Amino acid sequence: MTENKFPGKDISEEDLKTKFPLVAKKNKNHKSKFNVSGVEFGGSLIPIFAGPNMVESEELIKDTAISVKKSGAHFLRGGAFKPLSFPYRGPKYTETREQGIKWLKNAKEISGIPIITEVMEEKFIDLVSDVADIIQIGSRNMQNYPFLTSVAKTGKPIMLKRHYGASLRDWLGAAEYILVEGNEKVILCERGVSAPHTHRSTSRFLLDLQVVPAAQELTHLPVVVDPSHATFWRPWVSSMALASVASGADGIMLEVHPDPINASVDPLQPIDFQEFESLCKSMNSVANTLGRNIL
Ligand code: PEP
Ligand code: MN
Q1: Residue 162 DSSP code
Q2: Which of 58, 57, 66, 30 is nearest to 216 (CA)?
């Protein structure tokens, strides 16, 4: 009879020593603490990353930067380079690419909020590193190992989003590729997984909140949750964000847009400025009951 003992299932005690020794906790209370552009990770603060799916225009990103910062966000999110699911799209969906990176830089200068943005291709790593306080590696690139190595070598803090089909073992293995390059500022981000019953438009992914305590049992790295990509559905985002804080998440990523239904990409998922402002207050209340804080 197999016993249900730590660490359990597909991760063995041996894996922690030989497969991802750098990602694994050295003892029960081991938790990485680091600072990114003045924001503490791994402590009592639960940093918030907020902004549109895509950096659509200079004005949109500037207005969003100012608004989300005022409401309590610690980082402005938004992709200039986007992993869009289909190659055919109207002009509205065209990525803003290099121009979007310039607009992010501008927004940061004007508002003073640090930036997290995605890089998808090796040839743009330098360009993106120049503006990003945290480089985002998207779900779709989680297991692109040579790419992980190249991004790790920038020395920049990295957020590694979990692929929607990846086990915890796969995810921690991918994080080890970054740490082994000597880059220790790694943030994990759960953003929903695929399951048979998620194959409908209002439930594109299943938010795996159990992975938060599961990952924290094994790794010292901060674990962030992105309920926007998981739910794909605005009416569910706030309650799942609160649940994410309650699950023990070390940060929350949210899609926020001034005019959600007219967002260029994934218009069903962003919340507006007003909802974000009140959500920050309620997330802070939940955080407070756990001895943590957002605001
Ligand atoms: C994003 O955060 O913009 C994004 C594309 O997320 P994911 O890689 O999780 O799909
Ligand atoms: Mn997206």
Answers
A1: P
A2: 30
Across the range 126-138, mean pLDDT stands at 98
Which pTM value belongs to this model? 0.96
With b meaning 16 or more CB within 10 Å and e meaning fewer, what string describes 179-208? bebebbbbbbbbbbbeeeebeeeebbbbbb
How buried is 272 (Cβ within 10 angstroms: 0-12 exposed, 13-18 middle, 19+ buried)?
Answer: middle
18 CA → ligand 1 middle, Å? 30
Tens of pLDDT, residue by residue over 29-69, are: 999 999 999 999 999 999 999 999 999 999 999 999 999 99
Question: Probe ligand 1: pick from 141, 229, 257, max atoms within 8 Å of CB?
Answer: 229
Instruction: Dig out the tokens for 215 from the structure.
Output: 């990952």
CA 29 to centroid of ligand 2, rounded, Å: 34
Closest ligand 1 atom to residue 136 Cα is 2
pLDDT confidence bin for 15, thresholds 50/70/90? very high
Q: Is 53 in the pocket of ligand 1 (CB under 6 A)?
A: yes
Q: Nearest Cα to 110, choosing from 149, 54, 62, 159?
A: 62
DSSP single-letter state for residue 183 = -
SS3 195: coil
Inter-residue contact 135 to 101 (CB < 8 Å)? no
Q: Which of 194, 189, 238 is nearest to 212 (CA)?
A: 189
Element (H, E) at 250: none
Taken in order of first residue, the domains within the chain and their CATH numbers are 45-83+91-289 (3.20.20.70)
- The CA distance from 182 to 166, in Å, is 24
Instruction: Give the position, in ligand 1's atom list, of the atom nearest the Cα of 141.
Output: 8
From 23, 49, 24, 22, select the one nearest 36 (Cα to Cα). 49
The token pair at 24 is 């694994």
